[in-house]
Write a structure and sequence with these properties.
Length: about 100
């Protein structure tokens, strides 16, 4: 088995053949049986993430770990999904440290 890994700065390339294959799928051929049907109440409390990124940044900056505001701002510039990117960066650093320490 081959393990393929991608990172945020090295996403997989999508070929035109793959795009054509997806575009050729008819909606009636897609199996939605494992997805619950949406009710009228589904979106009543919905909040779009992009417009509320300032809340995410505020929450990240006020965690007990005291993340410096400039770090949060830098992470925000790297990705629109600040918290996911933040976790990615920390996990990568953790993995590198574990290799160094032999953990």
């Amino acid at each position: 088995m081959t393990i393929v890994r991608y990172s945020w700065d090295n996403p997989p390339e999508v070929t035109q053949a793959q795009l054509d294959e997806v575009a050729s799928i008819k909606e009636e051929d897609i199996d939605f049986s494992d997805i619950p049907e949406l009710t009228d109440d589904f979106g009543k409390n919905a909040v779009r993430g992009f417009e509320n990124r300032h809340l995410l940044m505020r929450d990240l900056a006020h965690k007990p770990s005291s993340i410096d505001v400039e770090v949060v701002e830098w992470l925000d510039k790297q990705s629109q999904e600040t918290q996911r990117y933040f976790n990615y960066v920390l996990k990568e650093m953790m993995k590198r440290q574990q290799k160094v320490c032999g953990e």
